[in-house]
Write a structure and sequence with these properties.
This protein is of the alpha/beta class. It folds into two domains: 182 residues, Rossmann fold; 41 residues, no CATH class. It contains ten helices and seven strands.
């Protein structure tokens, strides 16, 4: 974090102005990517409204107890709260949570914000109706443990919404989504840190290890959740809709293609539900 006097732009949504003013003061303007990240966090609300629409197709938001893991600057948390959810957001650093507080104040919504790690959630079992884990999984030190923790804190009948980038997506081989560097996404954290800092000529690297969509599905399943929807299932539905009748029996081929796509698309989505009989 770097304190400076740089002025943030006028917000597209006036409710975000206090947030943008704060964020413009704390980001490091010596980083060439700073303007890009400022714009990203301002525009994030529009993306989160679409994400909330998707979550709402699986579980009503009104009155739902929601945990947003890695809530960042509070865009998704505020959107969910505006739709009637009781939202708790966690982040490992309080200066980031302060941005979420500023945003919540501007939106006039109530958020419970807490400094915590996804690998060790400070909540009782069966606490939340919905857990969102959006654009965060690749920043965790142990994504498998995070997924297990999600399963633990979900209440029976609750859903987990997991969204993130695939480690071996061909698109990221050319230009990774965080730093725009070739092959950075496939490296381990230590190698990635050395490579990215060398290429950028500056310190700073907050990416862990990119996940693989099919492994995310397996981890959630082993933790006792049932997959309700995923990039793979969407692929299967498309296959069945388009394939000629003579090919409808080719289930093995369809499943193989679906799993390949789940692990190769740039961004995967997995929605998993905790059975009510647990």
């Amino acid at each position: 974090m770097s304190q400076n006097a740089a002025k943030a732009p006028r917000a597209n949504d006036p409710r975000d102005q206090a947030f943008l003013d704060y964020w413009g003061r704390v980001i490091d303007w010596s980083d060439p990517a700073a303007p890009q990240w400022l714009a990203h966090f301002e525009q994030r609300v529009a993306e989160c409204k679409k994400l909330a629409d998707q979550v709402q197709t699986h579980r009503a938001l009104l009155g739902a107890r929601v945990l947003d893991i890695g809530c960042q600057t509070g865009a998704l948390a505020c959107v969910l709260a505006e739709r009637g959810a009781e939202v708790t957001g966690i982040e490992p650093e309080d200066w980031v949570l302060e941005a979420a507080r500023k945003r919540a104040e501007g939106w006039n919504v109530t958020l419970t914000l807490q400094t915590a790690m996804g690998e060790a959630l400070p909540f009782e079992d069966n606490t939340f109706d919905i857990v969102t884990f959006v654009d965060v999984i690749e920043h965790c030190s142990d994504s498998t443990q995070c997924l297990r923790e999600i399963a633990r804190v979900l209440a029976p009948g609750g859903i987990a919404y997991v969204y993130g980038p695939n480690r071996f997506a061909p698109e990221w081989f050319v230009k990774d989504p965080h730093y725009g560097l070739a092959l950075a996404s496939v490296l381990s954290h230590n190698l990635g840190k050395r490579y990215v800092e060398w290429r950028r000529g500056r310190k700073g690297y907050d990416v862990g290890v990119f996940p693989v969509g099919s492994q995310v599905v397996r981890t959630l399943t082993r933790a006792g959740l049932v997959i309700e929807d995923s990039t793979a299932q969407s692929t299967l539905r498309t296959w069945h809709a388009r394939a000629p009748r003579v090919l409808r029996h080719a289930q093995t081929l369809a499943r193989a293609w679906a799993e390949l796509r789940l692990s190769a698309v740039p961004l995967f989505t997995v929605v998993a539900k905790k059975p009510r009989d647990v």
